[in-house]
Amino acid sequence: MQISAIAQTAGTPDADTVALGIFDGEGPPPDAPVEVGELLASGEARSSFKSLALTHAEGRRWLVVGLGEQADFGAERARVAASVAGARARETATRTLCWVLPGGATAAAGPQEIAAALVEGTILSDYSFESHKSAPAGDDVDGPPKRLERLIVSGPDGIEAAVAEAAVVGEATNRARDLQNRPGNDLTPTALGEYAKSLERDLEGVSVKVEGRDGLVARGMGAFAAVAQGSEEEPALITIAYDGAGGIQSPGPLLGFVGKAVTFDSGGISLKPGAKMAEMKFDMSGGAAVIEAVSAIARLRLPVRLVAVVGATENLPSGRAIKPGDIVTAANGKTIEVNNTDAEGRLVLADCLWHAVGEGAERIVDLATLTGAVIIALGSTYAGLMSNDDEWAGRISAAGDRSGEIVWRLPLHEEYDELIKGTYGDLDNAPEGRKAGTIVGGAFLSNFVGDTPWAHLDIAGSAWELDRAYVGKGASGYGVRLLVELAKSYLG
Q1: Catalytic residue list contains 197
Q2: Is the dihedral of CA 240, 245, 247, 253 positive or negative?
Q3: Which of 260, 281, 346, 363 is catalytic?
Q4: Using one digit for the tens of pLDDT, what is the confidence trace for 286-318?
Q5: Which of 147, 150, 209, 272 is catalytic?
Q6: Is 146 known to be catalytic?
């Protein structure tokens, strides 16, 4: 999709559909055709949030979109409004959609934020994954288009950069969704490593290293290697460094992004139930978010420094697979009783976190589809946040608020550390009982970051089936937008 911004003073652009947002108590914009006013006067068009009405004038369609109370209209509502408008535009075979930025100040966001959110909402809601269909639902030569070809945002001067940036981030999020949606026989750990290597070829300032099973053993990553040993597929330890495009760097810390990428999780010997096991291709969602966040940051040429670590493997049962009761040694020397092989993500992350510390990361955030318990606690609305540092946790929460990928902080307390103590080793990866399942996962991971400020995001409820208007069912790409906002928070 081509994305651009124009000044409202330039007049109505060459678009076959124009979207006009109307706040409560507002009439049509002064330059809107008379047909829009008639639509509002008749009551067919309303200002209530997400209401839609369509009319024709001046040789194009005019889509009137209700925005609700002006004081309540912020970036998240703009994303939702963009998604419902985009859906209606596609129904009418629109090729070029122009959003006229709603006028006036709002209590929740400025024009740049609203313009960016309209772009994100349109791009994300226009997504579909059809790579493995024998006859993808592309456009017929003589038929209507299945996707928007162009989006124009018409607004005041100064929105151009925000629109361009939102296009980059929205497209990166959709690429993360592509990675998530690929089946396990297609997106193997090796394939994910090859995809990450392509960033090095395409993007300035990015370097990528991929190591396999021998590399894990050589690094003493006994926890990660133990998960990988049940599969014939080679694991991949993916390390991505970004040093700022053109050598321009901020004085901020070296950021560490860590992602769990179990490309298929059967549970191992502790086999999962068969129902919905196919969804376990999504267990690599944290890794997808990390890779594409780095991609977006590099494409935006943000002057930050970061290192990203992604642990990719399958978790399968076999004669070589790790068994319940086995004890493994992580890279930091901690021994771990593996009492449930389906609590494998924390084993992978343990060594990846320690590797990020070794690479010099000064602030670390990891993303993982770690526990079903977070879905019980928070549903799909919030991701769970646990952290050993209040300032870092607050910065991540603020980035989540700005991006719409919101998080809710859960406590870490020394009493939780007691729950993960092992009987025969230092730690237990799956303590008996059902207490504080999500927090216990975070408490376990806290053993592998030393004194480095760190946060853990459990995105098991948000990575797919988020069911927000602009992402709907399937993969959501959750975390890409949050991580980009987090990096931007160090730009001053």
Answers
A1: no
A2: negative
A3: 346
A4: 999 999 999 999 999 999 999 999 999 999 999
A5: 272
A6: no
